[in-house]
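Thread: quick sanity check before group meeting

JM: Hey all, I'm pulling together slides for Thursday and realized we never actually wrote out the predicted structure for the chain we discussed last week. Dropping the sequence here so it's in one place. If anyone has concerns about the input, flag it before I start.
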Amino acid sequence: MADRTRLTRERVVGAALRIVDGEGLDGLSMRRVAEELGVETMALYRYTPSKDDLLDGLVERIFIELEEKLNGTPFGPAVLAGGDDEAAPPWREALVAVARAMYRVALAHPNVAPLLVIRPFTVPLTRRPPAVLRAHERLLTRLERAGLDERATLELYRAVISWVLGYIVFELREVVDNPDEPEPAFRMGLHRLPVKEFPRLRALGPGLAVRGGEEQLAAGVTALIDRFAPPT
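JM (edit): ok, ran it. Output follows.
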């Protein structure tokens, strides 16, 4: 059995992430995490008092990975603060780059990604993990320093957050009925749909199994920027 004194919250959340990545959210429990770490279940409660807290830790891990992915790039968190820093990239370009990075991190952890949408329903804004709050603070700061007024800042903030999270969830949805079936229509199970009742789904269904990718995500962010903060 592992030495309890070597436990940290980071290790506990890391174990939970490995479990969810490999087994899905249904496989996550305090007992399963304890097994992964080789400790008694009660040893975990010093670092995470509940499964809900553990889920929030997984969300925070996603945002920490986002920070790490951006660090050392022209779009790193320090540079994104913007202002008059000559190293700061144009804010429109920065928003698109952050959206792309978020997409990559979410696709690396597809079983965790739904929590990005689910947890805000149960966790008030000010009680969310620090890494999550930092991401939102930087976005609002960057929009304000770009010269947007309060109304435009809030409108674009809501629009970009909604688009990016919605797009990610749509990309990761389960659409394949039989992964081993080589023929696209049968792979998706479209033969189960009455053709007279669902003609468009039958015709366009195979395309739904193909991810839109980063380019469609970026195009959406750019369109929102042009809508709520058109170039002057």
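AS: nice. The chain has a mean pLDDT of 88. The longest helix spans residues 150-172.
JM: adding both to the slides.
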